[in-house]
């Protein structure tokens, strides 16, 4: 049976974070608040848990899951290299609502879907999410909704869609406007804005010092 924890109360927040960490380490799914919309998450290195996440969302491997991290330094062990453009974007927007796509380290044994050797990374600006990530390490996280339905902006909305497929729901209150993170792909010769979201193309271009292409 799923458990819901009110993270506005210090005691239940601590209980919830402990329960969520235990769930992640045992291969189960959790719902957590982020600075954009609510997310459904699992241990990024547990392939069975990631597949369970995709099943809960009714989504296929062709739409891979991104990874949330709890600190800047975490990404050094996850990617093939961190180019200057990525460092500049991280310093400007992390923690925050910009996701960055980079080639992942070939030594990593994970299965996030059909990623073609890449990984999408983000450090969220939310205290509950950051505390959990710093405890359990990188998590595979997608928006907390069934594919084709609106992303959840509250724990209640997430529970209504995902139900008992999730072991622990961390309720951080309403997320506000359900605006997704922006996504910048740095795997090619030039940066490409794959998704315009909370961070504008103009803001990304200003940091990079050059106009950023927009995906067709």
From TrEMBL:
Subcellular location: Cytoplasm
GO terms of molecular function: ATP binding; double-stranded RNA binding; L-threonylcarbamoyladenylate synthase; tRNA binding
EC nos: 2.7.7.87
GO biological process: regulation of translational fidelity; tRNA processing
Keyword ATP-binding recorded: yes
Keyword terms of this UniProt record: ATP-binding, Cytoplasm, Nucleotide-binding, Nucleotidyltransferase, Transferase, tRNA processing
Catalytic activity: L-threonine + hydrogencarbonate + ATP = L-threonylcarbamoyladenylate + diphosphate + H2O
InterPro entries: DHBP_synth_RibB-like_a/b_dom (IPR017945), Sua5-like_dom (IPR006070), TC-AMP_synthase_SUA5 (IPR050156)
One Pfam family, short name: Sua5_yciO_yrdC
Sequence ranges assigned to domain YrdC-like in this UniProt record: 14-199
Domain of life the protein comes from: Bacteria
GO cellular component, one term: cytoplasm
PANTHER family, A to Z: SUA5, THREONYLCARBAMOYL-AMP SYNTHASE
Family in the record: Belongs to the SUA5 family.
UniProt protein name: L-threonylcarbamoyladenylate synthase
């Amino acid at each position: 049976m799923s458990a819901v924890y009110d993270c506005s109360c210090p005691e239940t927040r601590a209980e919830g974070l402990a329960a969520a960490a235990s769930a992640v380490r045992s291969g189960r799914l959790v719902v957590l608040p982020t600075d954009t919309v609510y997310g459904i998450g699992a241990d990024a290195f547990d392939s069975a848990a990631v597949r369970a996440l995709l099943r809960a969302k009714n989504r296929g491997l062709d739409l891979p899951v991104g990874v949330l991290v709890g600190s800047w330094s975490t990404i050094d062990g996850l990617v093939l290299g961190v180019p200057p453009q990525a460092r500049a974007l991280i310093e400007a927007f992390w923690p925050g609502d910009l996701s960055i796509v980079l080639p992942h380290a070939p030594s990593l044994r994970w299965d996030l879907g059909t990623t073609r050797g890449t990984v999408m990374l983000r450090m969220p600006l939310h205290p509950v999410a950051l505390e959990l990530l710093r405890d359990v390490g990188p998590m595979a996280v997608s928006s907390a909704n069934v594919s084709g339905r609106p992303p959840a902006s509250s724990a209640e909305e997430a529970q209504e869609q995902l139900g008992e497929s999730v072991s622990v729901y961390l309720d951080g209150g309403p997320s506000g406007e359900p605006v997704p993170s922006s996504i910048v792909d740095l795997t090619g010769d030039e940066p490409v804005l794959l998704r315009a979201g909370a961070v504008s193309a103009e803001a990304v271009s200003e940091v990079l010092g050059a106009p950023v292409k927009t995906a067709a």
